[in-house]
Design goal:
Layout (H helix, E strand, L loop, with lengths): L8 E5 L2 H4 L18 H4 L2 H6 L1 H15 L8 H12 L4 E5 L5 H5 L4 E3 L2 E8 L5 E3 L19 E5 L9 H9 L3 E5 L11 H7 L3 E6 L11 E4 L2 H13 L3
Parallel strand pairs: 1-2, 1-7, 2-3, 7-8, 8-9
Antiparallel strand pairs: 4-5, 4-6
The structure holds ligand BJW.
The site of ligand BJW has 36 residues, from α1.
């Protein structure tokens, strides 16, 4: 435990934390955007043009997540341990749509880009659990409309989830930690600036420096499974 310390810590995670669990990142050389065009699968316009293709893209990723071959790694577990042991509040904001933080035991979690294991009705807005493939003939349990169910994810041009709460916790945090994100996508890429405005110490843990690297007070470079547990151990030791 950390005697005398009880301030709020805000953590932002990106695809890099799940890479060693077997999930692809987006912008690395072998990443998702090297295989598909983001305009086709991650925009409302792409979905309007070819909804079947978009559903297939997310169905394949959902099947992979639930295949039994993808498990939380030491980075996810370390963040859950930090939440359990830190005397102050820890808020984990993830851009990831996988459920690896939950499986590792994190509770104080915001999925700002949505969740792969949920679907949403475009007609009535109802969000529901979705562990099977989505098809165009699905109907909504709440309003009964057919053909309106889509993945509960945030595409380019859409407003990320729980932004008011995120800006509120950023305005009152003393340590901001960014893990495994390239800093290419806003508004998440701007969180480090918000945290600095609040007077927080800012730390980046990543395989390589991100776009906004100069905005961090400290950087630790390496794979998440090594650097996240080591950094958490230092924080819990009061360092
Ligand atoms: C490792 C590792 C290992 C590898 N260990 N690390 C300003 C200018 C121009 C445009 C905009 C702007 N502001 C906003 C926009 C528009 C747009 C945007 O940002 N465009 C940019 C391209 C410029 N943003 C939006 O449209 C957003 N909405 C919005 O702004 O609404 C307006 C609004 C905001 C706030 C309030 C009110 C209104 C929505 C963005 C939605 C993004 N959606 C996606 C898809 C989600 C569903 C899905 O998964 O399919 O989210 S795109 C994709 O990128 C996904 C990710 O969450 C997101 C971020 O990617 P991430 O996580 O950073 O991954 P990578 O691959 O980029 O980086 C991985 C990192 O890990 C790398 O650094 C590696 O080195 C590292 N790594 N292995 C540690 N082992």
């Amino acid at each position: 435990m950390v005697p005398g310390l009880s301030f709020r810590i805000v953590i932002l995670t990106g695809a890099g934390i799940s890479k060693e669990s077997g999930l692809d990142t987006f912008r690395d050389a072998d990443g998702i955007w090297a295989k598909v065009r983001l305009e086709d699968v991650a925009t409302p316009e792409g979905y309007a043009r070819d909804p079947q293709r978009v559903l297939e893209f997310y169905n394949a990723r959902r099947r992979s997540l639930l295949s039994g071959r993808v498990e939380p790694n030491r980075g996810h577990y370390a963040l859950a341990e930090l939440e359990q042991k830190w005397p102050g509040e820890v808020v984990l904001v993830t851009q990831n749509i996988d459920d690896l933080h939950e499986r590792a035991g994190s509770n104080s979690l915001i999925h700002m880009h949505g969740e792969l294991l949920k679907g949403r009705c475009d007609a009535c807005g109802r969000v529901s659990t979705c562990r099977d493939d989505q098809t165009l003939d699905l109907s909504c349990d709440a309003c009964g409309r057919t053909g309106k169910m889509r993945p509960h994810v945030v595409w380019f041009g859409e407003i990320p989830l729980e932004m008011e709460r995120i800006y509120d916790v950023l305005a009152h945090c003393e340590l901001f930690i960014s893990i495994g994100t390239s800093g290419n996508v806003y508004p998440a890429a701007g969180f480090v600036r918000e945290a600095r405005l609040a007077g927080a110490r800012t730390v980046e843990l990543n395989l390589e420096p991100s776009q906004g690297a100069s905005l961090f007070d400290q950087q630790v470079i390496g794979p998440a499974t090594e650097i996240v547990p080591a950094f958490v151990a230092r924080v819990l030791a009061g360092g």
